[in-house]
Every structure is written in structure tokens, then in C-alpha cells.
Write a structure and sequence with these properties.
Blueprint lengths: L11 H13 L4 H8 L3 H13 L3 E4 L2 E4 L7 E4 L4 E6 L5 H12 L5 H13 L4 E2 L3 E10 L2 E11 L7 E8 L8 H15 L4 E7 L3 H9 L3 E12 L2 E11 L1
Parallel strand pairs: 8-9
Antiparallel strand pairs: 1-2, 3-4, 4-6, 5-6, 6-7, 7-8, 9-11, 10-11
Helix pairs in contact: 4-5
Length: 243
């Protein structure tokens, strides 16, 4: 299914089922059926059609929106082995924890906001008429140690762009994980036909600014005194990369 376009569903009950799964995340079929007050036979029929059309999928006994964001990638470094893959709903708790640990002293406001939104909604992936959001995670021995998040807004004047956040736990930095996550996100964005990725970072987060600049991002604007961190006003640096 095209990640940036909500599927066209020509049946009200199937549309209701899709919207329920999109809104609630990975869901047990029986829970969805009861919540939607559908008869078992009709529910099974609608699920089968949505699966056939690659709109939803069933994994580990749960229905979820079907995203096809590519295969898991494995990396062997001198000191560490890690994988990068599309995030699953089951990663939500570990991912939120990783984001909050990685941002540490609060100098990455955009990522902090993403963690708060996902934690509050209890849903990792979004794919509706307003926005789509995609996460890729880096894992070491099954634990999430880094992420890249891309948010696409379905507004005509902005739908060629995506905002992203990225981070790696401090203990795992210096192994190329951040670079591989970024390039995975860039490839995904290019495959979706996007033209620009952008991010906004406090000017005090020099390491993040240097990292993005080394990967082809340029400063587009600076908003003076945009943040107030620990009682001091801090500029926001807006950076972007054309694809």
C-alpha cells in the first residue's frame, strides 16, 4: 500500500474497520469486531478483502495497517552488530523510552514532542487523510537503540516534504547507526516521491547540527530566541535536505 495515500475503500463497513485499526493500532480481530458491532461472518469477509487488497495485514494474531517499507537490514561493525527495520506497534514502549533517553538534557524538542504524542495516543504508525508517520528503528539484540521518524502532512502545499527526527542512545553512538538510520529514512522518502526532508534543532545542540550538515543538510533559516531552555533563550536552526 502506498504509505502517503490513504486507500480508497468503497464500502462503509470496511472503511470503518480500516479507520478503527488506524486509530487504535494493532488490534485483536475479536476486539475490533465487537467494537464495530459486526456479525462474525461479515467481519471475516471484510477482513479478507482488506487483506487481499494489501490494506491491512495480520501478524501475531493482530490486525494492523499494511505498510511495505522494505526488508530488515543487518550491519556488522567492528564492535557491534545491529539491524534496521520498519518499526512495529509492539515497539512503541521501547521506542518511546529510547527517544526520551536519547534526548537526555532536553535539547531536542521535536523528538520530545514525538515521544509525548505517540505515548499519549498509544499508536505508533499513522496513515489517514491528515497525516502519515513512519518509524524505522535500529535494534541491538532485539532492543531499540535508535530511531528515525518521518511525518508527512497531506496538505497540497506541503505534501512534497516530510519532517523527521532521529537519534541514537549515547552508549551506541560512534558505530554508524545514526548515519544508516538517516539514509534509510532518505531512501524511504525518495521512494514515496518526496522532495525535501527538514528538521528544527536548538542552536545549542551543536553535535546534531554538525551531523546533519555532514549528511547534506543545509541551514534554511534561524528563528531567534525560539526556545527557552533552563531559563535562557535559544535560537532554533531549521535545516533541510533536497532529495
Amino acid at each position: 500500500m502506498n504509505v502517503l495515500q490513504k486507500p480508497e475503500i468503497d464500502h462503509d463497513d470496511r472503511s470503518d474497520l480500516y479507520e478503527y485499526i488506524e486509530r487504535h493500532g494493532a488490534t485483536r480481530p475479536e476486539k475490533a469486531r465487537r467494537s464495530l458491532n459486526m456479525e462474525p461472518r461479515a467481519f471475516g469477509h471484510h477482513v479478507a478483502i482488506l487483506k487481499r487488497d494489501s490494506v491491512i495485514e495480520e501478524e501475531e494474531g493482530k490486525l494492523r495497517i499494511a505498510f511495505d517499507a522494505g526488508a530488515k537490514e543487518e550491519y556488522e561493525k567492528e564492535k557491534i552488530s545491529f539491524t534496521i527495520r520498519q518499526a512495529r506497534e509492539e515497539d512503541l514502549t521501547g521506542l518511546v523510552g529510547a527517544i526520551r533517553e536519547a534526548i537526555g538534557d532536553g535539547e531536542y524538542i521535536k523528538a520530545e514532542t514525538v515521544a509525548d504524542i505517540v505515548d499519549n495516543e498509544g499508536v505508533l504508525m499513522r496513515h489517514n487523510e491528515i497525516e502519515s508517520r513512519m518509524f524505522f528503528v535500529a535494534c541491538v539484540e532485539g532492543d531499540v537503540v535508535g530511531w528515525v521518524h518521518l511525518k508527512h502532512t497531506d496538505l497540497r502545499k506541503l505534501n512534497h516534504t516530510a519532517e523527521f527526527t532521529l537519534g541514537v542512545l549515547e552508549a551506541y553512538r560512534g558505530n554508524g547507526i545514526g548515519s544508516q538510520l538517516l539514509e534509510r529514512g532518505v531512501r524511504w522518502a525518495e521512494e514515496q516521491g518526496l522532495e525535501k526532508l527538514y528538521n528544527a534543532i536548538p542552536a545549542t545542540n551543536q553535535s546534531a547540527l554538525d551531523f546533519l550538515q555532514s549528511h547534506g543538510f543545509e541551514t534554511e533559516a534561524v528563528r531567534e530566541d525560539h526556545y527557552k531552555l533552563n531559563g535562557s533563550y535559544v535560537d532554533e536552526v531549521m535545516m533541510a535536505r533536497n532529495l
